[in-house]
Write a structure and sequence with these properties.
This protein is α/β, with parallel strands linked by helices. The protein contains 14 helices and 25 strands. About 45% of the residues are buried. About 30% of the residues lie in helices and about 25% in strands.
Length: about 475
Amino acid sequence: MHTEERILLVMLDTIELPVVFLGALHAGVVPVVVNTLLTAADYAYMLAHSRARLVIVSGALLPVVSTALAQAHSEGNGEDCALVVSQPLDGAPGGPRGALVLHELIERAQPAAQAARTSGDDIALWLYSSGSTGKPKGTVHTHANLYWTVETYAKSVLGIRESDVVFSAAKLFFAYGLGNALSFPLSVGATTVLMAERPTASAVFARLVKHRPTIFYGVPTLYASMMASPSLPTRAELALRICASAGEALPRETGERFSRHFGSDILDGIGSTEMLHIFLSNRPGEVEYGTTGRPVPGYEIELRDESGRPVPDGEMGDLYIRGPSAALMYWSNREKSRATFLGEWVKSGDKYRRLPSGCYVYAGRSDDMLKVSGQYVSPIEVEMVLVQHDAVLEAAVIGVDQDGLVKTCAFVVLKQEAQALATQDGHAALVDTLKAFVKARLAPHKYPREIVFVDDLPKTATGKIQRFRLREQYRPRA
């Protein structure tokens, strides 16, 4: 491998991933950490797009990666791409034919005492965007960007220290998780807990009780399922001093219930793959649930209208960020790069309102905004009201076309105890109740004209609701 060549890391959250990631940075090689829940076609695309010279894969993910390599080869890509398995499968002495085994390579290798000669502005790593609106974009970050997320968020907001034990339910392939579980704790010598399995409420509780982390990082859907779980631990069983949330807006009710139960605040914030971590956040002692807080020290925020002019407090605008951890570009995607990276500013694609207090309130993704009866409706605003109802666990709102007009439709996941009641009394009564609940709290044109009850909501691996999938599966009532 040579400096700046890419290696694709398709690895679960085990100790091997930090070892490989840090080793790559030491050698000046560019690690491309990717989602472990993708299809072979996704990996084949990433292999071709990144021109990776090496793939390192966890044993459990080897079948799908092998298929991806075969597909890439058939398309004339990746012929010179080597394969390394992090661990032998089923205790076998070696990996599959043609593959190397990471542990064996490490045992034979001579440590490189001298790091590659890289600067803060040299390319360090790639992270692929979720690809929810098209092909994933390879987001290119520098060595300095990791440093700046530590200095701005980890130290200034979290106040992370050596004595902390940290646990991130968000995985390392996610920009949020990479800081949470790797660069943040290593920067101060703290302890980090890694979990390879899916972050269900029960799996998270087991780690929180056993390892007693002092800092926990989750996403809103996980916090909601934790609070709804019958196996919720007591405050005395945990050692939490602070928690963080990102990925989606945290409902006020979820944050308040969590704080009352555990005595620990959740710092709701927003980050992005393009900014590498959180740039807007609540802070300890200054939490305002229902908002995303204030700019993280070192970052500037502007809300602008469609003409690029700043909007006054209370009005909705597009979110622009300026800060030291911004990515360089999307690899080999000039059009998207020019639309997102605007000089010193990054256009996030999110809509926000700023309150007179200086806190920012999330209004949704720009491409999810709805215009109903000639007025803009934020799906997030309607969802936040719905989840305040005792029967509702989760909600997602989309716009649907009814006779040429846009109407709102809410997909609702009920709490377990409410499901039986709804079945017994009939869903129609609950639909009317929920509509009235929203009408009493929002402007009349914002209430959902239709409510569909579902078992779960489609989400990305990072916990974001995929509203475009709901639009695809929507079927108008006869």
